[in-house]
Amino acid sequence: xxxxxxxxxxxxxxxxxxxxxxxxxxxxxxxxxxxxxxxxxxxxxxxxxxxxxxxxxxxxxxxxxxxxxxxxxxxxxxxxxxxxxxxxxxxxxxxxxxxxxxxxxxxxxxxxxxxxxxxxxxxxxxxxxxxxxxxxxxxxxxxxxxxxxxxxxxxxxxxxxxxxx
Length: 165
Prior knowledge:
The protein is α+β, with helices and mostly antiparallel strands. It has helices spanning 46-55, 73-86, 88-99, 106-119, 124-136, and strands at residues 13-16, 20-25, 28-34. Helices cover 38% and strands 10% of the residues. The chain has a 3-stranded antiparallel sheet with strand order 1-2-3, with no helix packed on it. Strand 1 and strand 2 form a beta hairpin.
């Protein structure tokens, strides 16, 4: 499904049915929402707003469409670790992980995030790789225990005195 900001400044069509509202542009359906009959109520699908939030990561905590969006605990842990490591770029990568919901089911993405956290592979590429592997029926290549023939790297601790001339 294509996002709204990819269709900016173009005519769209809207079809209201008893149980749903469908929005489209040309021959493409952009969004489907359940119809709400409550007065002055708004129905958001947070996934539709993720492309915009990827551009404006500062709005991640204040975005109305995300208010009340209950994500599994693993997602909060992933976000915290990504932001601690990369700050603003970490927030953008976190939104990229959430954008995987445009393609994959929440349960599959949750498993991938959980596996990435357990492996210490904190990043969008790792999560995407882990969510695709079961679908493509191949083992993930992030766990180095599966490759016993690779040489082990022993990295020693450098003393601060080593830098004094």
